[in-house]
# Entry
Amino acid sequence: MEFLQPATWREALEAKSAHHEAVPIFGGTDVMVEMNFDRRRPGYVLDLTRVPEIQVWERENGKFRVGAGVTYTRIITDLKNELPALAMASRTVGSPQIRNRGTVGGNLGTSSPAGDALPPLYASDAEVELASVEGIRRVPVGEFVTGPKRNVLRREELIWGFIIPEAEGPQQYAKIGTRNAMVIAVCSFGLALHPARRKVGTCIGSAAPTPVRAKEAEEFIEGVLAEGDLWETRGAISEAALRRFGEMVEMSARPISDVRGTAEYRRRAVGVLARRTLSWAWAEYRDGR
Amino acid sequence: MMPGYTRAELTAELKVLPSREGGKAPREQIEAARQAASESGLAHEAGPDATVLAGDRGEVLGAMMKVIEASLDAGAHAVEVKVEAEADAPRFGRG
Amino acid sequence: MTRAETIPTTPTRERPETPVSTPGRVGESTTRADGVPKVTGEFEYSSDLWMDGMLYGATLRSPHPHANIWSVDTSEAEAVPGIFAVLTHEDVPGRKVCGMEVPDQPVLAWERVRYQGEPIALVAADHPETARRALEKISVEYEVLDPITDAEEAMREDTPKLHLSGNLLRHIHVVHGDVDTAEADVVVEGEYEVGMQDQAFLGPESGLAVPDGRGGVDLYISTQWLHIDRDQVAESLGLEPDQVRLHLSGVGGAFGGREDLSMQIHSCLLALHTGRPVKMMYNREESFYGHVHRHPARMRYEHGATRDGKLVYIKARLVFDGGAYASSSNAVCLNAGTFACGPYDVPNALVDSYMLYTNNPPCGAMRGFGAVQVCFAHEAQMDKLAKALGMDPVELRIKNAIKPGDRFPFGQEVPPPAPVAELLERLKAMPMPEEEDITGRDLRRLPGGVSNVTHGEGVRRGVGYAVGYKNVGFSAGFDDYSTAKVTLSVEGGEPLVRVHTAAAEVGQGIVTLEAQIARTELGVNKIAVLPADTSIDSAGSTSASRQSYVTGAAVKAACEAVREKVFARVREEFGEDPDGLSIEDGNVVAEGHGIVVPLAELLDGEEIGELVKYRHKPTYPLDENGQGDAHVQFAFAAQRAIVEVDEELGLVRVVEVATTQDVGKAMNPQALEGQIEGGIAQGLGLALLEEIQVKEGRIQNASFTDYLLPTILDMPPVKMEILELADPDAPYGLKGVGEPPTIASTPAIVAALRDATGRELNRVPVKPEHIVGISGPTGQPPQPGSRGPAAERA
# Structure
């Protein structure tokens, strides 16, 4: 196994171009497990920990460009007010040690339906920035992940990072695990209110082959909010509407049964999380944030 | 010597040496011995062709004879037998 | 609802106060000598062992739960560069089977494999990666057979036999009084199930075997019992016991999972074959296949009582799935049978405890050893009975609590102390914690924690009680003893005591206790506890909560013998009456007139050493009706659990566990707290989290990703009250303490869940699905709020 250690992003892209099969590694919290279990023994490993360009985040026209090498811990400490749902999701990842090394870039690279960082990205219409020696392209995150652990990354490409709008309204993230720490999500839910556009963004995690937006539920609640002029008046959402929202989110889930939980439980739980997170986000909105 | 919580009063280890002429196939000779051993309720496999009987002296000796008979009837020419009375042997203390 | 802070900025726990660290005596919270090295990463565990020129061993394991082996071809593996040995059963020179109780387990399989993970072949290589690759090159031709995966199915006559002796390994039948003629006003029934828990010790199976060049071998190993390992290794290697020397290395926890052999014979085989030291170490996944687990159990109970709450009879039918090989299943079956009724005075009982072979993973010893399973069932029954009678559940238990002079259902008279009623009364009297306001609560004190699933919605509180008990020590006539050698000498002008036993320190603190006892009995501060090995006779197993009692007694007796010799010498040389003498701070002191002579001077360069073999009072086997004085000591513990449950999601937060336990004498109060908290953590794990999921004989979750242990964020604060009522037969009056905390904690937590949710919850670990009400083969949820059936007979 050869270990490539580029010192700049340019060098990294060139290395990937020269060795398509090279596996990029940053925190290693997924890649090392695969290697230790003998599931993956690549001929080349591309160490990105010395590449400074992907370890930064910056503001750009009301959006945040966050490099693939920004760890969960840094997102929690640096961006918890600007990207609240993503920071909440980061807080639920593993343990402090894992958060110090793991990255959203890694979550994107692995593209697991259980990736904790993914639902907030979906709920805020984030984009993934992919790069190669040829140039850059941006793909909406919903199009980036195509199946369980599958994505559209080309063999000569690396993930630079993601672009996500700054939160313009309250956001929430909730994750079900049977234990209070260090659990892979049984199911999860991300929610973002976008008052300027009168939109509600949602995403179900770990209850379908990929993270999936609950489109019908979003349309439903956007309709409720529009009808009652609630964005303006900041009035309450009725219990019945909250319940209906939860039910509609359930309908978008396509969960399976496995060692962590049954399909029926996941479906029901996602509905409960949807109802609760919406009520918390809306309560925050009513308070005038 | 059989370590473990309780030691049986008597143990008998039997190894069937199958013959290739006459009688049943070698595999079947060993199976016949195993079958007889298993009927006694005292037996455990102790190797590819070995069985151990463990229990009270009377029942082990009785079962042993049945196993030997079954083996000879199936055509085996020889049965190796090792009998050990270990109930009072010291354990863990040697060394 | 105010916004909950989803990113907490305050620490989760307060740091504990620094404990007293002076060398301590019996009864003092003495710091462990290995404590700091362990937390700073400097402690050498068996997995850290290293020797120049060592090879790495690896094991080929069966992928099938049940199969015939037609052939094993090792030629390709042998040709791999860097491979020094490939061994099969043909290379086992001595006995080809081993086992804790019944030698039914092949060292390496020959023509049949009976569980997924059963060892078939070994390799030794100069690099662990080479070893792994060579394993892949061993070709085994299997004829895959249908596995027997259900214990009830295994019991049937027409089911194929997995072993020559049949599938029923043991049946314990306990008859007490006459249940058929017993008249009860109220009867409750129930069926309960306990899933397969795992010891999940953090230190993997590991050790180093070093050939001595004269045909023998030294094995550095993590284990619970050096001598039973040594005997099995010697048998299988065809060696004399003194040619096989075992040395205890750093053990990372055990909880019963290291009583059976894992790599002991294997590594020695490879070492003797290659003539080089061989290290073997399992990774986490292999570890799950490499040791036994807790027996899953299905239990059917019937309790009958009078209108005013006196137990009239208990009927129990217990079926245990022992898996592929016997391990210590015989003793677990006996334990469960004898403890099935709980610590209650019941005039009539009929208990049948069945232990079956199946093709499921083999099961054996785990902390609690049969008592855990039945306690879950009998405590659920007592709560059902209380409800049917309209009685307070604790009052019902106190009313029926067993006491000295009563007879257990297995006939033995209850020895003092047996303060069951007092434990329950004190537990009930412990104040409840203040109920914290839900609104604005820190997320970490809500079900789900920082996963942010509730800000108080759906949260309901519940309280539950349970009491359990178990024996201490080995039972039913087993010759249970320990050996200690104590030597008093002078080193650097100061008296020094060396204590040598073979007691396995697995993290519970016996090494610290041995030093505490020596200090107390010999009045000398400087104590060296020598490494445990087989150069001294056996100390018995580190299990059954027995080491403090039996090895403690041996050390105490050896110290006393040394002390007697010291006083005899003083009388000789100084004419002092031994009765008035004592040793303090390294000086011999006479009552009334102070220091007679410093020890260093008295010894004058000589050593005084004594070797003692200590046996506790004898126990007796059970007869065909399950009657006999089978156990040597009983320890009791009662627990109260407070939980908060998110009813819509089925997630649980344990708020507090309070416990009362009778310990005889708190030998090291801080270590005692550690044992109690650790036991409660394991009980909590069984109640809510821990299960080896097995489907068709295959483990589905052989990893800590999905075999979930409680973390610090799952463990509640523990309030404890200790009763020190001396056992007259035990050294210092002490009782074993390791297992009782894990026995009653599971039923107490589930009782609290039932209180909060109204669900029947007959199975542990309880899953969110069960709390929410999604269960049953059709997926149809039972009605929310339904209680279980409680048959009432007028």
User: Anything to note?
Assistant: Residues 547-574 of chain C form the longest helix (28 residues). The interface with chain A takes residues 1, 3-4, 6-7, 132, 283, 285, 444, 448-455, 457-458, 648-651, 653, 688-689, 693, 700-701, 705-706, 708, 710-714, 767-769, 772, 774, 779 of chain C (CB under 8 Å).
